Amino acid sequence: MKAYISLGANIGDRFSQLEDAVRMLQSLGDTDVTNHSSYYETKPVGVTDQPDFLNAVVEIETNLAPLDLLEQTQAIEQELGRIRTKKWGPRTIDLDILLYEDENIELESLIIPHPRMLERGFVMLPLAEVAPELQLEDGRTAAEAARAFAGDSGIVK
Length: 157
Ligand SMILES: Nc1nc2nc(S)n(CCO)c2c(=O)[nH]1
Hints:
By secondary structure, the protein is α+β, with helices and mostly antiparallel strands. Helix content is about 25%, strand content about 25%.
């Protein structure tokens, strides 16, 4: 099953945190990282008084069910020492499941498609890099949706 995961880090050695997270995703049983985006230097959105992020998106093929995939991404965050002080504060690593095939999931612990993905340039630009033809729930392709963020000075590839 095909899924897309957004990665973000804004404290510590951000690059190696992201690299480690991709490697750990690859090492999960039943999961292969089949594509990944460039790294993007991005201004924080939401809580803006925090360091700039490094963001990326990976495409995976997995036999893990969505909740099992969530459990594994949370385990990777813990393993890489996610210091979760404030809910929206700086974090060593953040893995968000964006999409899982065409599934719609509305659980306390997991909402898919990710509810804020379409409004986040730091998600849509790397997602469009990995899967430009991906059909989104609003009928646009990822490439079309990402165009809205193309000039965003807060996102540097
Ligand atoms: N640029 C940017 N801003 C963010 N705000 C939050 S919260 N996050 C964490 C993702 O949920 C980010 C992020 O990854 N990148």
